[in-house]
Design goal:
With 498 residues, the protein is α+β, with helices and mostly antiparallel strands. Helix content is 39%, strand content 17%. The protein has 19 helices and 18 strands. The strands form four sheets. The chain has a six-stranded mixed beta sheet with strand order 11-12-13-16-18-17. A five-stranded antiparallel beta sheet has the order 1-2-9-4-7. Helix 11 packs across helix 12 (351-366), helix 12 (351-366) packs across helix 15 (395-410) and helix 16 (414-424) packs across helix 17. The N and C termini lie far apart (82 Å).
Length: 498
């Protein structure tokens, strides 16, 4: 056998030896055989210690260039490479949303409780600037210590120990072309379904293997869904591919209500690359869900809807005769829309009503309703899911019906135009949501809708009334609340800068 003495082979051999040396050094630290500084570093609830040389980080970076984003097995352990994302605060400001989406990406890795572990991060401008962060724990899960612990990773080795342990997520803030690669030692791998990478069969095989990892994750472009392993096993035989495709469909449909999408339509706002993290909260025994920045935590009683594509994406042939079944699916759609609600329109008591806009959009997508209906009275008799079942005397329901009635009167593009205006509007003075609703719906239709809103006892402030007087919009030819067929001709669209 001829020995390869080429320069390329010698460089590769040197790199392998150096990597093996790094692995041995870090592994020794993880096993507790390094200097006292390591023991001190792991005494706190969550800690990280910089250890590797710049040369080691360089070798890690050279190897990382060969990896596509994902999670891989390497001689050292598990490797995750993830692309950079914008900050949640910047995306919230750009999209005018009431809540932030999450830039913490799933790695599929699990840090066992109290166990020394190591993360080796490559040396990049982002890691040097402190923009690579490790998030420990499923958001809000008491099993993972409640709130996530977030630490900044330094280039080189970071020795970790976390008392409760938990799932690991990585956030990298920066340009979309940037990325971060981390090598791990002492971590476990959770069963994980990744849309486009994992087949249903492969996922079920992973799920069936014995493991001490208590969590299971489902990942798609727009969604991370984390549930406990017992719940995942209960819904093992569901179609995971269709499930995650349904979540992405719901995200696209709800984005479209805000005129947010892939840019194919004129003046469309770009889709956020951030994700919505969905969890089950074992502490929530009443209500549907609690939506906060980055996540929505559901009552475990809704696990069947969240993990069954036949219920999550109900189509006409799959609709149960039980109204309760319909309402629970509606509730999930509504809560999933929370991260797309717009701050300019969702205040002043309109949070529940505007959330219903995103649920009705999903309802119409999965169960199309032909034509327009005849006014609010008949609307209540045949409306979609929750509105049909809810108490018509509820102020939230009345407002939801009122807002959806405007869509019936002015067509399916009505709310995308209004919400697009809300996202792009830059008022000289702050306005309340009620004023914004009356002003922006009037501007989009080219018609003065004060009389329509007055029927629901909604009136503009003095300042908003002055703006409407100045715009001098025409009176609606038809009463939008009693509209039956077709829609009025589109009025002129005027600017709203006051």
């Amino acid at each position: 056998m001829t020995r390869d003495n080429s320069p390329k082979h010698r460089r590769r051999t040197a790199t392998s030896r150096r990597t093996a040396f790094i692995a041995g050094t870090v592994l020794a630290a993880v096993m507790g055989t390094t200097a006292a500084t390591t023991a001190e570093a792991v005494a706190a609830p969550v800690t990280a210690q910089d250890g590797d040389s710049a040369g080691a980080a360089t070798e890690q970076r050279r190897g990382a260039r060969q990896l596509k984003p994902g999670v891989f097995h390497t001689p050292m352990g598990l490797t995750a490479k993830l692309s950079a994302k914008p900050s949640p605060a910047a995306e919230q400001q750009r999209l005018k949303s009431t809540l932030q989406l999450s830039n913490a990406q799933s790695t599929g890795l699990y840090l066992p409780p109290q166990k020394r572990s190591a993360v080796i991060i490559d040396d990049t401008p982002e890691s040097r600037a402190g923009k690579v962060k490790l998030h420990i724990g499923v958001p809000g899960a008491k099993e993972d210590g409640g709130e996530q612990r977030v630490i900044t990773l330094k280039p080189g080795s970071n020795i970790l120990r976390d008392r409760p342990g938990g799932m690991l997520y990585l956030s990298v803030e920066g340009d979309a072309s940037a990325s971060a690669t981390l090598e791990t030692i002492g971590m476990a791998e959770a069963p994980r379904f990744v849309l486009g990478e994992t087949s249903n069969k492969e996922f079920r095989e992973l799920l069936d293997r014995p493991t001490n990892v208590p969590w299971v994750e489902y990942v798609s472009e727009r969604t991370v869904l984390t549930v406990d392993r017992a719940t995942a096993l209960k819904y093992r035989d569901q179609d995971q591919k269709r499930l995650m495709e349904s979540y992405d469909t719901i995200a696209r449909v709800q984005d479209a209500v805000n005129n947010v999408g892939d840019g194919k339509k004129t003046r469309q706002t770009a889709t956020s690359p951030l994700v919505q993290h969905i969890t089950l909260d074992s502490r929530k025994t009443e209500g549907v869900a609690r939506a906060t920045d980055g996540r929505v935590a559901f009552n475990p009683a809704y696990a069947d809807v969240l993990l069954s594509p036949g219920k999550l994406a109900q189509r006409p042939h799959a609709i149960s005769s039980s109204l309760v079944h319909d309402k629970r699916t509606w509730d999930v759609w509504k809560e999933l829309g929370r991260h797309r609600q717009l701050a300019p329109l969702g205040g002043d008591g309109f949070g529940e009503a505007t959330a219903s806009l995103y649920a009705t959009a999903v309802e119409r997508h999965f169960r199309p309703v032909g034509g327009f209906t005849a006014g609010i009275t008949s609307r209540l008799s045949q409306t979609l899911a929750k509105l049909r079942e809810a108490d018509p005397s509820s102020a939230d329901v009345q407002r939801a019906v009122m807002l959806d009635q405007l869509r019936l009167a002015y067509g399916p593009d009505f709310w995308p135009k209004v919400n697009d205006l809300a996202i792009k509007d830059k008022p000289k003075h702050p306005r309340g949501s009620q004023d914004n609703l009356i002003l922006m719906t009037s501007v989009v239709t080219g018609e003065d809708l004060r009389d329509f809103f007055a029927k629901s006892k909604m009136f503009p402030s003095k300042d908003a009334a002055k703006v409407l007087d100045k715009l001098d919009l025409r009176t609606p030819k038809h009463d939008p609340s009693a509209f039956e067929n077709g829609r009025p001709k589109e009025g002129r669209v005027v600017g709203l800068s006051e």
